[in-house]
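Researcher: Checking consistency across runs. Here is Guanylate cyclase domain-containing protein again:
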Amino acid sequence: MRAKALHYWIMVLDVENFSPRENPVQRAVRRAMYEVVEDALSATGLTDKGVVMEDRGDGILILVPSTVSPVSLAGDFIRELHDGLRERAVLTSTAAATRLRVALHQGLASRDEHGWSGDAINTAFRLVNAEPLRDVLTAAHLAHLVFAVSSDVHRDVIRHGYRPLDPAAYLPMRFEAKHGQPIEAWVTVPGYSAPPGLPPLDAAQPTPVAPAHPSAPAGPQTPAAQAPASAGTGASAKTITISGNTVQGDLVAGNKTVHVNGAYPGLR
């Protein structure tokens, strides 16, 4: 009997630099990954929504029924996932640090006695394994995760600016998958005004600004990731200098004071 294909929101999580670690460390990282994911699902009310998780060794395939709002996934769930990883980073050794690449797509998937399959699932894995996405997480050395959405999800969900989503925090990413298949996606890094490390496209890209939070590890930063001292008052004041006409804040970093230096036609 042929399995019925149903529509799902398809999310894939993958741990950065998992394979080079020793076996005991891999087990600790996997345990941390599952605890953070389960806590995030619970905090966003998704635990009892028919969400399916399939283990992939160094990551997880998550299938969410189409009745669940994708805004909850791209907004609340990603925020909870990021916050959980950030809190664990304070208590975790560098060897067992867990940083994630996360991708969201949509499409048909079907299940047999061995697991889930479908072209949409393949696309989600191509997104999470894309070299440009790996480069972004490497460049965003203060980040705990990087999040990519397919062009379909960006067109239907992200660009409309449903709260708490911030379309201005996403930039396009293009790459070639297997057999030369061109794929376009959109990338954001919680805590950054724009994802660093993306190869240049035709349109100009804003300068990314790294977050400043107590759990950020000490170490050298690139000039683009260093924000100037705040011109505001109070411990919570933040100042970000960025070239552009209009810049919106992102969900995790909170409110910002933005100074604009000159015209920047590539930014809307």
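Researcher: Does this match what you'd expect to see?
Model: One thing to look at in this run: The chain has one domain: 6-198.
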